[in-house]
Specification:
The protein contains 11 helices and 5 strands, in the order H-E-H-E-E-E-H-E-H-H-H-H-H-H-H-H. By secondary structure, the chain is an alpha+beta fold. The model has no long low-confidence stretch (mean pLDDT 93).
Length: 238
């Protein structure tokens, strides 16, 4: 057993005996059991009844702790929710409430996908218009900016939180999305658009996204871009 593992075991045992501690959640690579390296640290959320006066964040060591109440865990910031995807509590003294909260943090209401789809189309449209004006750098920047919105939409439409970029390939492989969004398809499309901002690549992605969006009940968002939908598809007017 490594020194860090032994330290983590001691932390769990101490938490078991501490009446103020309600539970422990191990996130990150070690919590997910994937992408673990010899330098991976231990990201531990310590859920307490009442947060003590000492600092909430303890960083710098191989075991990093975030001390927070159960209510604070429920209200976790959107940007940090993927930390709780595919993990569970190491210790739960609440009769399963921490486990339920953690599971909910890893999910997303599919109805929120509408705004994300609209954001993606907005940046794609800007990229097209900038290319028409021979603003190549600006067009490529908008193309790159459209991708986070598109990924957010794609995962939200599946009821899931978008993974951090480091975890995108693993997420698509270990927890596949519905067709046609295979790991190869998504990574290939995103990497080409981010790297080159090619208009034909963007149009092809939009057409595939439109078909998927209409299938999932988000056609109204696409229709809201009339009369420019034919332009977005790469079709001729007429």
């Amino acid at each position: 057993m490594s020194e860090e593992t032994a330290e983590f075991v001691r932390l769990v045992r101490a938490a078991e005996d501490d009446e103020n501690v309600l539970g422990l959640v191990l996130s990150g690579s070690r919590g997910k059991g994937a992408l673990v390296t010899s330098t991976s640290d231990w990201d531990v959320y310590v859920v307490v009844r009442e947060r003590p006066a000492d600092p909430q964040f303890e960083r710098g060591g191989r075991i990093e702790r975030v001390v927070l109440t159960l209510d604070a865990l429920r209200e976790m910031d959107e940007w940090n929710r993927y930390a709780f995807a595919h993990v569970g509590p190491v210790l739960d003294k609440t009769g399963g409430e921490i486990e339920r909260v953690v599971a909910e943090l890893g999910r997303r209401d599919p109805s929120t996908a509408s705004e994300l789809l609209d954001g993606y189309v907005n940046f794609y449209y800007r990229s097209l218009k900038n290319r028409e004006l021979d603003l190549e750098v600006e067009s490529r920047l908008d193309a790159a900016e459209s991708m986070p919105w598109w990924l957010d939409f794609l995962f939200a439409s599946h009821g899931r939180v978008r993974p951090y970029n480091k975890w995108l390939r693993w997420e698509l492989s270990a927890h596949p999305l519905s067709e046609p969004w295979s790991e190869h398809n998504v990574i290939h499309r995103v990497s080409r658009i981010v790297r080159y901002g090619d208009i034909d690549d963007q149009r092809a992605l939009f057409r595939a996204t439109e078909a998927f969006a209409r299938e999932r009940g988000f056609g109204g968002v696409i229709d809201g871009w009339e009369p420019d939908v034919v332009l977005l598809r790469g079709q001729e007017w007429g």
